[in-house]
Amino acid sequence: MKDKNGAEHSEQNGRFVSGGSGEKKEYDNLPSAGKIVANYDKRFGKNNNASQEIVKVRMDAAIQKRFDNSTPKERSKIAYHYIMDNLRGKYPTKDNREVFIERVGAKEIAHTLYEPKIRVTPELAQLIKAGEFLKISKAEHGPFKDFAYYKVDIEMANDTYSAVLNIGIRDNGDSTLYDINPFNKQ
User: Fold this and answer.
1) Residue 117, class by beta-carbon neighbours within 10 Å (0-12 exposed, 13-18 middle, 19+ buried)?
2) Are 162 and 170 in contact (CB under 8 A)?
3) Distance CA 116, CA 137 (A)
4) What residue ranges in the chain does DSSP mark as E strands?
């Protein structure tokens, strides 16, 4: 078979060969596109799914030091106030949904004794931006008519977690980060 430049290409015994002027060159020792992408992902902080980012939690941040020196109940209060004072606002998802971080979600997210979930609170905006859309389902109760779910992967203190952002959708279409559930160590 000839390409657009007139060079001959064929497959012989499962190997791609090319040749002009009667000379054949083998290309079976080149890495596949899959291997190239996997190596890129490992090197630049992405997981096996090329479109899924891993959000890295900075454990050296000042807020993490406050968590270190606190009881579980105090961590919840610190997380709530951190969200309200530093993260309230609107953030875009990859699929262009505008998601608010506000009191209703701050209360739900901070109301836990599960330490990894508390420690991820400074990165909530990044989680929203990195999340991969999963589905929308009807809300069973509460102030929302629907929930949109976004999968996120998180790296924290040499551990990797998989979590799902629960984003409440109101009747007027506004979206609010309500919870992160499930939140599991991989």
Assistant:
1) buried
2) no
3) 26
4) 8-12, 15-19, 25-26, 54-56, 89-92, 98-101, 132-138, 146-156, 159-169, 175-185
Q: Which helix (H) or strand (E) holds 76?
A: helix 72-82
Side-chain-side CA neighbours of residue 111 (13 Å): 8
In order, the DSSP letters of 129-166 are: HHPEEEEEEE-SSSS-SEEEEEEEEEEETTEEEEEEEE
pLDDT tens-place string over residues 39-67: 434 433 444 444 578 999 999 999 999 99
Amino acid at 159: D
Q: Which residues contact 36 (CB under 8 A, 6 or more apart)?
A: none
State the pTM of this model: 0.72
CA-to-CA distance for 134 and 177, rounded, in angstroms?
15
Quick: pLDDT tens for 93-151. Answer: 999 999 999 999 999 999 999 999 999 999 999 999 999 999 999 998 889 999 999 99
- Report the C-alpha gap between 69 and 84 in whole angstroms: 21
Q: Which two tokens stand for residue 130?
A: 């990195």
